[in-house]
Amino acid sequence: MLDCLIPASLAGTDAAALPLHLVTKAGLPALLDRLAPGQAAFLRASGFAAKANEVRLLPGGTGIEGAVAGLGEEPSSPWSYGGLPMALPEGTDWRLEGEADAPAALLGWCLGAYRYSRFKTPPRQPARLMQPPGTDTALAEARAICRGRDLINTPAGHLGPEELAEAVRALAADYGASCEVIEGQALAEGFPAVAVVGQGSPRAPRVAVLRWQGPGAGADAPLLALCGKGVCFDTGGLDLKPAAAMLRMKKDMGGAATMIAVAEMLMAAATPIRLLLLVGAVENSVSGTAFRPMDVIATRKGLTVEIGNTDAEGRLVLCDLLAFAAEQSPALVIDAATLTGAARVALGPDLPALFSDDAEVAKTILRYGLDVQDPVWQLPLHRSYVSWLDSNIADLNNVATKPMAGAVIAALFLRRFVPDDLPWAHVDLYAYNDQTRPGRPEGGEIQAARALARAVTALLLHRDNP
Hints:
This protein is of the alpha/beta class. It has two domains: about 5-135, Leucine Aminopeptidase, subunit E, domain 1 (3-Layer(aba) Sandwich), CATH 3.40.220; about 140-460, Zn peptidases (Aminopeptidase), CATH 3.40.630. Helix content is about 35%, strand content about 20%. The chain has 16 helices and 19 strands. Strands 7-8-10-9-13-17-14-15 form an eight-stranded mixed beta sheet, sandwiched between helices. The chain has a six-stranded mixed beta sheet with strand order 1-6-5-2-4-3, sandwiched between helices. A three-stranded mixed beta sheet has the order 11-12-16, covered by helices on one side. A hairpin with a 5-residue loop joins strand 11 (about 295-300) and strand 12. Helix 9 packs antiparallel against helix 12 (about 315-325).
């Protein structure tokens, strides 16, 4: 899926690459002093001010002899470099010069070069960058993010539960992991809530289980469990969504794509941990076999759930995954989902909502989110609202009795399926760019994955953890 993407944005090491001078506003005077007098005069005359994403080509006797790109005030952000592949001339090769943060530059370049191209050839190819030394981690992160973007961008008619599970199987094959896909009667018995959510679709639900042990990780190495909501399309079920709300529901497996990306980052880094990745792959459809409002369903943990709304299906998928993960005695559990519109109302599309009642886990994820420009924002697990999930005929309802605090309520529902003494974090994300920005083209997006990969490494291996 990626092999045709990343090489298209990188130049070979023997390429006759042109110099690309990266400069902050503060460094502009020194750059002008170093450049050839004619080039410096051209920059001054054109009003170049080194603003973020500002680009000027440098003329010379042979045509283009280089380029200058502004970084604004903060050169460490990948998004300072994300517009360059499409701003520089197609078919040109470049090498970094000046004030560039090489890992951020490579990551931003690759993410900015990305375009989903399965059904339409992009109007142009990106300019290519020579990979700078010390950027292998950034390149691996870019590969994982672009794989996840491809999954989210694929129309639901081409990516159903089977195809999503096969994507997990393909990832396992790439990194020497094992993968089991649970379906049919085994799914109904072991993951009853997942089975119920998917029973209205002719495309059968399944759970993909990836297991991996890092190099040097013994049987007692810490186990990380990642759980992803993989609703390949969400009609809302019998509580049908309005047409406008259904338009982007191919992205409702964005949590699964994010957890797949985190898993790939950790495996690519040869992290010495044990890894368990669980993806609940389903389609929430309307049919005579779809589950109904006021049904009572079973869950893996043994709790019964009254269905207050069939459009609150993601938490039903995750609750079985969380219960299974807890049975494996992990050191840490993280789940991710495009779970609630309420989180978007509170934080907008760019800030995933983080829920955790483990202070160290929350603090570490927040810290790395800021460090790597992949932020999340913590919302409270306010226990006073737990009673809003009470049901008269089951252990709990899947929605609240009040139309408020929707993201908090969803997180509190999931909390019922995680043991109190087990470190756990829940990420409620949007997984989509509504418009193209540098490094973030319109379409599917992998959010918080880089922050989570760095944070879990620190938490489980006690590396640089405050």
